[in-house]
Structures are given as C-alpha cells and as structure tokens.
Amino acid sequence: MTAPADPRLAFLEGDAPDVAPRLIGWRLLVSDGVETTGGPIIEVEAYTQDDAASHAHRGPTPRNATMFGPAGRLYVYFSYGVHWCVNVVTGPEGSGQGVLIRGIEPRVGLETMRMRRGHTAERPRPDRHLTNGPGKVCQALGITGADDGVALGGERVWLEPSERHFQVTATERIGITRDAHRLWRFVG
DNA sequence: GAGCCGATATTCT
DNA sequence: GAATATCGGCTCC
C-alpha cells in the first residue's frame, strides 16, 4: 500500500515527466500549526532515474533516499549549501524520481511569506519575488530538511485542486548541463 | 534589467 | 579539487 491516501493524488504514481505538467495549477499549502502559506503551482521540472541531471541518476544516497520511496512525499534537499528545494516524489516505490517545485503564485499567508522572505517595511520588495524560484518557494513556505519524507495530505502539507485553467508550456530545464535538451520544465 | 560573484553541503573525480 | 536541480548583493546600465 504505497498509494497516496487521497485518491485525487493517484496520478502522482505516474512517471515524473507525465505528472509534472498535471501538477500545474494545484494549490500547494503548508501549515506550521499557526499560519498557512502557499498558492497554485506555476513552474515545475521533472527528474527521473534515467536522467543524468537527476540526483537519483547514480542510485540511492543518504540525501536522495526519499526519491526512491513511495509517491506523494516531499523530497527536500540543500542546494549549493545555501538553499532548500522541494520535490514531489512520483512513480512506483523503488524508482528514483520527482518533480521539482520551481515556482508558485503567492496567494495564501502573504504577510507570513513576506516576513520569511525578508520583505520588510525597511526593505520593501514586490511580491513577484516571493516564490519565483525553488529556493524562494521553500523559504516562503517554511520548508526545510525537516520536511524531507513528509507525505502530502497531512496537517503539515497538502494539495488542493486547481480552481482555474492553466495553459501549460514545456521548455528546457534551468540550471543544468547534463540532459539539458529534455523538455521537462513546465510553466503555467 | 543583465552580468559577475560568493556562500558552501553533498556528491563525485 | 570540482561541480552542483540557487540566490542576493553588487555594478553598470
């Protein structure tokens, strides 16, 4: 029994390149017990084990172990020794794959996200800088390594269905060199 | 806005 | 020692 508890999330058991565009529009929400933050997913990238750009390409390590677990969990890793980035794990258990959340529309818990991102009265910045990058999404939503392996659908983090139509465009992935030709970045 | 650069955990050479 | 699924601060437009 490795399927996500929520039957609406059964599609996460598909392969990452198929799941990724379908995640566009789903509202990603995170609660710290007091404040809820999040918004619709608008930019993602797929990573598979058969993909030289993926952390899973060379097999399981302590860092990427969650990618080889059941679909519907978060894989959170520390990027460049500086930022946290979050994936939604996809595919059958034992396959190393996931969908990197590169951007959401900042909609829920705006004040909390501004505070976490350092958008203060002393240093005001436009909201468009809140969640327009994988490291920024984690900072605004309060996602850290403590969330690695957490299942979607609990009290901590969950998805809600899209409330409107998103036109999805496929492009090359960003910030990689190996297997960069694959059109596995999806923007809504 | 574009271009350069430093931060530095994890993994690989 | 080098590369990496990134970002913010800096300079110069």
What attributes characterize this protein structure?
DNA-binding; 8 strands; 188 residues; alpha+beta; 3 helices; 12% helix
* Average pLDDT figure: 96
Oligomer: single chain
Radius of gyration: 16 Å
Shape: globular
What's this entry about, in short?
By secondary structure, the protein is of the alpha+beta class. 12% of the residues lie in helices and 25% in strands.
Description of the structure:
The protein has 188 residues and is an alpha+beta fold. The protein contains 3 helices and 8 strands; from the N terminus they run αβββββααβββ. Strands 1, 2, 3, 4, 5, 6, 7 and 8 form an 8-stranded antiparallel sheet that branches. β1 and β2 form a beta hairpin. The longest helix is centred in the first third of the chain and has 8 residues, at 16-23. It is globular and about 45 Å long. The mean pLDDT is 96. It binds a DNA duplex (13 and 13 nucleotides) through β3, β4 and α3.
Q: Topology of this structure?
A:
Blueprint: H1 16-23, E1 27-31, E2 36-47, E3 74-79, E4 83-89, E5 98-104, H2 110-116, H3 134-141, E6 157-160, E7 169-171, E8 185-187
The protein binds a DNA duplex (13 and 13 nucleotides) through residues 45, 47, 53-55, 58, 61-63, 77-83, 85, 87, 100, 102, 133-136, 139, 173-177.
